[in-house]
Amino acid sequence: MSQAVAEPTDEVAEAPVAGTRGRLPLPVAAALAVAGGLLTLLAFPPTYWWPTAPLGVAALTFAVYGQRPRVGALLGLLYGVAFFPVLLFWVRVVGYDAWAVLSLIEALYLAGMGALLAVAVRLPYWPAWTACLWVGQEFVRGRFPLGGFSWGRLAFAAADSPYTQLAAVGGAVTVTFAVALTGGLVVWSVRYFLSGSVRPGMVAAAGAVAVTLVGLVVPQPAATGKSMTVAVIQGNVPRVGLNFLGQREAVLRNHAAATHELADDIDAGKVPRPDFVVWPENASDVNPFADPGARKIIEDAVADVGAPVLVGTLVETDDGKDLENTGIVWDPEEGPGDRYVKQHLVPFGEYVPFRPIMTKLVGRLDQIPRDMRPGTSPKPVSIGGYQVGDVMCFDVAFDDAVQKSMAGAGLLTVQTNNATYGGTLQLEQQFAVSRLRAVEYGRPVAVAATSGISGVIEPDGEVRAKTGQFTRAVLVERLPVVTEQTLAQRLGPWPERLFVLVGLGAVGAAVYLRRRRVQGT
To answer: Are residues 148 and 263 in the same domain?
Structure first.
């Protein structure tokens, strides 16, 4: 008489904790999904409680475990609805309708991911596959529709965490993967412990700790021993709100005045003469190539400081139909030179999609009489003898924009105009992204904002100097020159592509295996 030997199964390793196959009752799962969204929110400014990011991921993962995909979608939506409206509350200054619509659209991506998570957790070693799905969700959300919206990525909550240095390995996507993997391993560990499998639970817990701490041993590119001196100008704006752009000349004069003050301090020996100066986005909303008065204001300031200035201004496209949001290198001797044109424009802010239809539906869109046109061939600008990667405001949250601008650059400049959102969390959220970019490329970052927050960031993400809001300020800092590339810079977009393909492959494998089981083959 033969005896059959039972093979270990997923049901043994993943014993039920509630309901069929470990499925939580829907009310409990829903509450856990909402808690997950709120926990993740706490990892972002102003609290910066980075451990709550992997815990938020863990809460959603535990909620969707064992659920059908449609229930997973509902739970993902609840997570997103708890997370995005609070994270993006600053959008209300544009309009409460814009805030509500944007928050809902972003939450829908989490619904799609929730459905896929419910499928992927059926596979062996599922924490790795679910982490890839988090990267995939951010990949899609950052591209569609209308160019996407990258705010709220897990990586952007990690600027002060042990995960931070992983950005130098594979970019922001590697940080997102690590945070999500930690959350998955936490759930794996808890499920093992609840099923009485102590040793596997300890291994999973140790894995979560290891993933959290591995970034601490990632080396930073070595400095050359040389340095550059950079000045950042925050000229301030005359008043707050959407209509401050009507004070165009006043904004330009503010930045010119701050630059003249810097020149006086240089002449008095209070500060060294910078290799170059950075003005913010929209420092001159008056086109200096069309307005002789604006051009003279810029030229006088540049001549007085005796160093090239990266001027944020608006210029007309060659065909005269649209505008370009540009950063132009203005040399005291040679005049205007290299320029950067903003790549990722803000829909309904810098251009109006489907203009003939949308302006009829939303009357206030008439306040945007002309569209801006995105740049198509970004590259570093040459200024003061250095190659500098420049991005503008919204650009800094998009990997592709920074990757292209930083090809061969020794410094990243972020020209931004956040006056509309002054007093909201948008400013701190964006500054945290700039800190992560510093680590990703192993380069210093200079952030110039019209009214704050401006700052200078070390290659390791530490803040060297930072301004307040709605005040005139000038920062002059000596920064290290770094030429060695991080692994993330060399790999470019390939880590993201790999994570996305693996995530899709995992979902496909889970669907295939389930069909085979149903068919009994």
So the answer is: no
pLDDT given for residue 240 in this prediction: 52
- How long is the chain? 521
Question: Are 367 and 360 in contact, with CB atoms under 8 Å apart?
Answer: no
CA distance 515 to 117: 17
Catalytic residue among 138, 342, 458, 477: 342
For the chain (521 residues), the mean pLDDT of every run of 10, in chain order, is 38 39 90 99 97 99 97 99 98 92 97 98 97 98 93 97 98 99 98 94 98 96 90 88 63 97 98 98 94 97 98 93 95 97 90 81 79 90 96 96 95 95 95 98 98 96 97 97 95 98 96 82 56
Residues 243 and 167 placed together within one structural domain of the fold: no
Does some domain include residue 2? no
Catalytic residue (one of 14, 106, 281, 458):
281
pLDDT at position 325 is 96
Query: Do residue 35 and residue 135 come from a single domain?
Result: yes
Bridge partners for 277 per DSSP: 231, 309
Q: What is the DSSP string of 443-493?
A: --EEEEESSS--EEE-TTS-EEEE--SSS-EEEEEEEE---SPPHHHHHTT
> Residue 281's closest CA among 246, 232, 212, 214?
232
Torsion of CA 448, 420, 362, 104, to 10 degrees: 80
What SS3 state is found at 315? strand
- 281 as an active site residue: the answer is yes
Structure tokens at 407: 């090809």
The answer to whether 388 and 409 have CB atoms below 8 angstroms apart is yes
Any alpha helices (H) in 95-232, and if so which ranges?
A: 96-120, 126-141, 167-170, 172-194, 198-213
pLDDT computed for residue 11 by the predictor: 38
132 is catalytic: no
Domain that holds residue 392: 227-343+374-481
Choosing from 106, 393, 404, 458, which is the catalytic residue?
A: 393
d(CA 347, CA 91): 13
In this prediction the pTM is 0.92
342 is an active site residue: yes
Q: What is the CATH number of the domain that holds 457?
A: 3.60.110.10
